[in-house]
Amino acid sequence: MEAGNRTEVLEFILLGVSEDPELQPFIFGLFLSMFLVTVLGNLLIILAICSDPHLHTPMYFFLSNLSLVDICFSTTIVPKMLVNIHTENKAISYMDCLTQVYFSMFFPILDTLLLTIMAYDRFVAICRPLYYTVIMNPRLCGLLVFVTWFVGVMTSLLHTSLMMHLSFCRDLEIPHFFCELTQILKLACSDTFLNSALIYFMTGVLGVFPLVGILFSYSQIASLIRKMPSSGGKQKAFSTYGSHLSVVSLFYGTGVGVYFTSAVTHSPQKVSVASVMYTVVTPMLNPFIYSLRNKDVKGALGRLLSRATSRL
């Protein structure tokens, strides 16, 4: 294939997590199970929040958005992988791959920004309780979510727009189970300096800065909790604080794990296995973390399920 060929006629090959034919049924069943748990768990969180007036607060408004993002993120990646395994056809068209690149960047950006907003919400609720309803008013909450989605749309659009100008003249096999941008850039025969520079810049702006904000918020919250004289107040503050901190740790921990895995190993298979953690496992575990560590969510889920069973 020549360097000047138009990219829209190209077709990529997704090698998947493993090329061992004997492992494909196990991988199919595992990913299908995790995908169903992810969708069901996050959907239950959304329904519980929407149906319970006690959860119509800024914190749970942001949590419902986070659950929606987790559903969409898994749906972007897992179904295509399952189809490829079932049909034994690893091909993905250029436009489908471009779409997957867009959304596989879009939803993690939303995750990062929503977690940052949720950290700020907890900071105001615990450290500035008297001003909470004034600061976290519905207008500000709606504006924050709108800005989050707008930044995600524009950033992902910028990355995919630059990718559309690349030419591909080498082996078009992607050693991954989805179209991951950095893996695709390795297949390009045209200059990818702008693409790489944008990745590093946006990683700093939308990755490091939000993490600094989250750590600052929770350092202030932890300091205040330690000073609380009432053990009941500490337990109530820590119930939501601990749940969100667990989700943040899981999200950033798996992301950093994938980064270091790709840096220290030259095995694409190990990088793919590490990527499973933040693309599939993290969205699946988030509902369990919030439901098991949060009494309000557990109560709302119990009332939702009891209403559903009573109608059967």
Summarize the structure.
This protein has 312 residues and is mainly alpha-helical. It has helices at residues 24-51, 58-87, 94-127, 132-135, 138-163, 181-185, 193-227, 231-264, 268-293, 295-310, and strands at 11-14, 91-93, 173-174.
> Based on helices, strands and strand pairing, what is the structural class?
mainly alpha
Strand element count: 3
The topology string of helices and strands comes to EHHEHHHEHHHHH
Strand content: under 5%
> What integer is the average pLDDT?
86
In the predicted model, the low-confidence regions spanning at least 5 consecutive residues are 1-8
Largest sheet: 3 strands, mixed
Count, helices? 10
Major sheet strand order: 2-1-3
Please outline the helices and strands.
Elements: E1 11-14, H1 24-51, H2 58-87, E2 91-93, H3 94-127, H4 132-135, H5 138-163, E3 173-174, H6 181-185, H7 193-227, H8 231-264, H9 268-293, H10 295-310
Parallel strand pairs: 1-3
Antiparallel strand pairs: 1-2
Would you mind describing this structure in some detail?
The protein is mostly helical and 312 residues long. Helix content is 76%, strand content 3%. The protein has ten helices and three strands. The protein has a three-stranded mixed sheet with strand order 2-1-3. The longest helix is centred in the C-terminal third of the chain and has 35 residues, at 193-227. The chain is globular. It starts with 10 loop residues before the first strand and ends with a helix. Mean pLDDT is 86; it is low at 1-8.
